[in-house]
Amino acid sequence: EAIETLQRAQSAYRAADRLWNVAECERNIADSLDYSSREAEALTSFERAQAIFDARGDDNQVRYCTMRRSQILHEVGNFTASERLTRRLYNELLAEDDSEKYGYTYWVGLHQAGNLLMLERFEEVLNLTDTLNDDKAEANPRNLAWKHTMRARALMALDREDEAMSEVDAGLAVTDNDTMNSETAFLYQIRAGILLGHDNNAGERDLA
Fold first, then answer.
1. Whole-angstrom distance, CA of residue 3 vs CA of residue 41
2. Which tens digits make up the pLDDT trace of 91-113?
3. Burial (CB count within 10 angstroms: exposed 0-12, middle 13-18, buried 19+), residue 92
4. CA nearest 31: which of 60, 58, 61, 11?
5. C-alpha span between 195 and 201 (Å, rounded)
6. What band does 190 get if pLDDT is binned at 50, 70 and 90?
7. CB 147 within 8 A of CB 129
């Protein structure tokens, strides 16, 4: 019903030649399609919206559509395409060097690290996250835990257990009941694996 309502509004805006509003409706349709697990249709809608926003010179909306496309591609397992989109946007933001937008740049960088992790480009994950400035971004605990989790997973894949454990401890230190999510599960799993690998039964508690 929401999508149909947006489509009717979009038709009215198109008839009035209000192209920015046409794109806004298309963007909202795309979000609704994604929330309805209609990812392929959502990607197409975001592409259409982005093309209009681009023609209208609305960089913020172009970036929104770019990141939403990247997120959907990541969700469906197309990490290569997702990484390509996020890398391009991240590099654009770095080139602008706008301190007021650094929080957004940081968040895009985390998404890029997530793509690199899934592509098993572990050294690149570490190099990228090394450059992300937590203080400058005023990073919230959820994003800090996400960053530490990705670093811990990359370090484990590189057989650097001691460093991975340090990242686990740092991630858990910023985690509370309000920020616990699937990333928290990874942290406990990594810690348990390391402890059990050293015949430390304390690791069993993390798997309980």
1. 12
2. 999 999 999 999 999 999 999 99
3. middle
4. 61
5. 7
6. very high
7. yes
C-alpha to C-alpha distance for 58 and 37, rounded to whole angstroms = 27
CA distance 44 to 115: 21
| 182-198 b/e (C-beta count within 10 Å ≥ 16 → b) | ebbebbbbbbbbbbeee
**CA distances from residue 86 to 51, 74, 78, 112, 128 in whole angstroms, order as listed:** 17, 10, 12, 6, 13
pTM of the entire structure?
0.89
pLDDT in tens, 115-160: 999 999 999 999 999 999 999 999 999 999 999 999 999 999 999 9
Q: What token pair was written down for 192?
A: 């348990």
59: CB partners within 8 A, 6+ apart: none
Q: Do 116 and 157 form a contact (C-beta atoms < 8 A)? A: no
Pinpoint the alpha helices (H) of 57-160.
59-75, 79-96, 102-118, 122-131, 134-137, 141-157
